[in-house]
Design goal:
This protein is an alpha+beta fold. Helix content is about 30%, strand content about 25%. It has three helices and four strands; from the N terminus they run E-H-E-E-H-H-E. Strand 2 and strand 3 form a beta hairpin. The longest helix is centred in the first third of the chain and has 15 residues. It is globular and about 40 Å long. The two termini are about 20 Å apart.
Length: about 100
């Protein structure tokens, strides 16, 4: 069963470009993970809405393996400055029970 993880990140005004570049650089670490299917970074269009970093995995176990890997540690070794992100957000985890594609 497909497993989805969303990370909601409130990025402060003026730091959007830095945030997007930061995640482009991280993509090379996650792309090679066993069980990884896709990543999407969603830019908010509404006022005060968070960015959403959505990853798709073959299973919850594949996601947990990534979180415990050296690649994960490298990808998260240089976090954004604390003044670039706001309070709130966080991780959400889902199992896909219904899916449809064109």
């Amino acid at each position: 069963m497909t497993f989805i993880v969303n990370n909601r990140v409130f990025v402060k005004p003026g730091h959007e470009g830095t945030f997007e570049v930061h995640f482009r650089a991280r993509a090379v670490e996650i792309d090679k993970q066993p069980g990884f299917l896709a990543m999407r970074v969603l830019r908010p269009l509404g006022n005060q809405a968070p960015y959403v970093v959505e990853t798709e995995w073959e299973s919850q176990d594949a996601f947990h393996s990534w979180v415990g890997s050296e690649d994960f540690k490298r990808a998260h070794a240089n976090p954004l400055p604390s003044d670039a992100v706001g309070e709130g957000g966080g991780i959400e985890q889902f199992e896909v029970v219904i899916s449809s594609r064109a």
